[in-house]
Amino acid sequence: MTVVGPFGLSVRDQALETDVQAGLAAVEAGLLEATKSEVPFITEAAQHLVRAGGKRFRPLLVMLASRFGDPYAPGIVPSAVVVELTHLATLYHDDVMDEADVRRGVESANARWGNSVAVLTGDFLFARASHILADLGPEAVRIQAEAFERLVTGQILETAGPRDGRDPVAHYLDVIAGKTGSLIAVSGRFGALMSGADESVVDILTQYGERLGTAFQLADDVLDIASDSHESGKTPGTDLREGIPTLPVLLLRERAAREGLPEDLELVRLLDGDLTDDALHAEVLARLRVHPALEQARRDTIRYAEEARATLAPLPECFAKAALEELCDAVVHRAG
User: Helix, strand or coil for residue 40?
Assistant: First the structure.
């Protein structure tokens, strides 16, 4: 049993391990090639986050999903490069919107070069992803376009907030289904589709990715509050400081409105204060770390991961299926 990929995923078959490692190495080479430019500065900026590393969660999912067809089909590695480039591009844009200083344990692009360069570098990565995608055929282009539309829609919904009368938690789950679930679902879909797997298998792995994507984002929400920067690779409480609603905060607000406990109402009042103040930010973070809302967010993360696992039930038993099931456990483990 060897550890590969993100979160220390264990692969229990030597042939699968070898192929997954080779596939991820090919994706890494593809990412470096796709981020090269004739302009050295563009290459430096575009490769900034590539070289910082990362979990490569989406390419790993592509590789595992491809095992239900021909895992050596020519479109698999390029499609994995496409989803990771798209993901990287969104990180450049997210850091500008969040005014983040740290990403993947290194200085964010916007902190290093300014917002304009960060936004344009993200656009450059989107362009390179589209160039690769064009060689994968019109169906792949359509799938990616639909996912990108969902991703952007999720970001807009987050920015606009819930409309009057809309449950904030339900709104938030719609947001993360678009922002995170859409691209992870495409990872499962591309891996199965490019390998020539049966249509039913493609559908299963798409649904699996959708549910796992929600669990993945909820785990990130927990990490934003519960982890230190060494664990998460970014500044703790970034979403909190920027006033971005995450599940623990939404659950706190819901509980405060429902039960009216003085300590909850006081924490909500602090949340609505100026969290750019370091002392206030630290106090709110410390209180949230011991609040029942954080544990509820963990339970919700587990529920979505279990739903993802259940989706895999119709697939034949094999080492790839076992690895996909273990990904569900790994996502839950991140949330503690």
Answer: helix
Q: Are strands 106-107 and 102-103 parallel, antiparallel or unpaired?
A: antiparallel
Q: Are 328 and 302 in contact (CB under 8 A)?
A: no
CA 83 and chain centroid, separation = 11
Distance CA 61, CA 323 (A): 10
Q: pTM, whole model, 2 decimals? A: 0.90
Contact 119, 91 (CB under 8 A): no
Let me know if 254 is exposed, middle or buried by CB neighbors in 10 A (0-12, 13-18, 19+). Answer: middle
The three-state DSSP-derived secondary structure of 171-199 is HHHHHHHHHHHHHHHHHHHHHHHHCCCCH
Whether 89 and 125 have beta carbons less than 8 Å apart is answered as yes
CA separation, residue 158 to residues 102, 149, 163, 173, 268 (Å): 22, 14, 11, 10, 20
Long-range contacts of 136-143 (CB under 8 A, 24+ apart): 136/75, 136/78, 136/79, 136/82, 136/194, 137/75, 139/193, 140/75, 140/79, 140/82, 140/190, 140/193, 140/194, 143/186, 143/189, 143/190, 143/193
Summarised one tens digit per residue, pLDDT across range 285-320 is 999 999 999 999 999 999 999 999 999 999 999 999
* Cα 188 to Cα 184: distance, rounded to the nearest angstrom: 7
pLDDT band at 1 (very low <50, low <70, confident <90, very high): very low
Which tokens is 61 given?
A: 């999912």
Do residues 213 and 177 make contact, with C-beta atoms less than 8 angstroms apart?
yes
* Helices 199-226/292-311 angle, 10° precision: 160
At 119, the amino acid letter reads: V
Residue type at 145 in one-letter notation: A
Task: Dump pLDDT digits (tens) for 14-73.
Answer: 889 999 999 999 999 999 999 999 999 999 999 998 998 888 999 999 999 999 999 999
The answer to whether 39 and 290 are in contact (CB under 8 A) is: no
